[in-house]
């Protein structure tokens, strides 16, 4: 990754392949209107004005198939929390950004506008969490103040403990009209059902 990144980074967590997805790799699910899921999410992040990076397990190097810079998380095999910790640790050293956004790689319906809305609310001391009908989703933005805590995550623990430890006045909950922020897919059947809702242009 480039040194001293100033734009807001978006980290797409793609360091694991779901066992429930069988032999298929859901990161590269073919979309109805062309392209593959992970690269579609990369494009949406860029359309939202974000500096997109994909987090991978070095033992599963698929970076040649991804249209974005990739960050290798040495401890990705331990769990999602370890992947976050490795990736955020890299950005803490190399980026001057005031915040970063984090999301999983299995949100096929996520809209570009939702990414923009979260990014617009970021601040050094703020955590921004999008919701749809009161259900929390992604991406979640963490101000730089929370990066040291994120870099200490371990196992399969996500950012919940960091959010729970933050003062409530610095946790910004924003309601979005986008069910795609919380509709992920753990099985091929779930992915197929979501893709039936996918439209040619996600705004």
Describe, in short, the structure shown.
The chain has a single domain (9-195), classed as Spore Coat Polysaccharide Biosynthesis Protein SpsA, Chain A (Alpha-Beta Complex). It has six helices and eight strands.
Give keywords:
single chain; Nucleotidyltransferase family protein; 203 residues; magnesium; MobA-like_NTP_Trfase
How would you characterize this protein structure?
By secondary structure, the protein is α/β, with parallel strands linked by helices. It has one domain: Spore Coat Polysaccharide Biosynthesis Protein SpsA, Chain A (Alpha-Beta Complex). It contains six helices and eight strands, in the order βαββαβαβββααβα. Strands 1, 2, 3, 4, 5, 6, 7 and 8 form an eight-stranded mixed sheet that branches. It starts with 8 loop residues before the first strand and ends in an 8-residue tail after the last helix.
Secondary-structure topology with pairs:
Layout: E1 9-13, H1 37-47, E2 51-56, E3 70-72, H2 80-94, E4 99-104, H3 112-120, E5 127-132, E6 135-136, E7 140-143, H4 147-150, H5 160-165, E8 171-175, H6 188-195
Parallel strand pairs: 1-2, 1-4, 2-3, 5-8
Antiparallel strand pairs: 4-7, 5-6, 5-7
| Rg, alpha carbons | 16 Å
* End-to-end C-alpha gap: 28 Å
Instruction: Please estimate the helix content.
Output: 25-40%
Main sheet specs: 8 strands, mixed
Strand percentage: 15-25%
CATH homologous superfamily label: Spore Coat Polysaccharide Biosynthesis Protein SpsA, Chain A
CATH secondary-structure class: Alpha Beta
List low-pLDDT spans. Answer: 1-6
Order of secondary-structure elements? EHEEHEHEEEHHEH
**Total of helices:** 6
Structural class: alpha/beta
Q: Which shape, going by the Cα principal axes?
A: globular
């Amino acid at each position: 990754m480039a040194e001293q990144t100033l734009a807001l980074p978006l980290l797409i967590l793609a360091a694991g392949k779901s066992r429930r997805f069988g032999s298929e790799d859901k990161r590269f699910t073919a979309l109805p209107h062309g392209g593959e899921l992970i690269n579609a999410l990369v494009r949406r992040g860029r359309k939202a004005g974000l500096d997109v990076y994909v987090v991978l397990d070095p033992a599963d190097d698929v970076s040649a198939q991804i249209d974005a810079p990739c960050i290798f998380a040495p401890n990705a095999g331990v769990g999602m929390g370890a992947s976050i910790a490795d990736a955020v640790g890299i950005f803490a050293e190399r980026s001057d950004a005031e915040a970063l956004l984090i999301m999983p790689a299995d949100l096929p319906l996520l809209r570009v506008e939702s990414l923009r809305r979260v990014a617009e609310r970021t601040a050094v001391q703020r955590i921004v969490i999008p919701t749809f009908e009161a259900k929390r989703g992604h991406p979640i933005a963490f101000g730089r103040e929370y990066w040291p805590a994120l870099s200490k995550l371990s196992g399969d623990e996500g950012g919940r403990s960091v959010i729970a430890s933050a003062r409530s006045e610095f946790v910004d909950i924003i309601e979005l009209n986008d069910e795609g922020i919380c509709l992920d897919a753990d099985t091929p059947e779930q992915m197929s059902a979501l893709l039936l809702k996918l439209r040619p242009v996600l705004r």
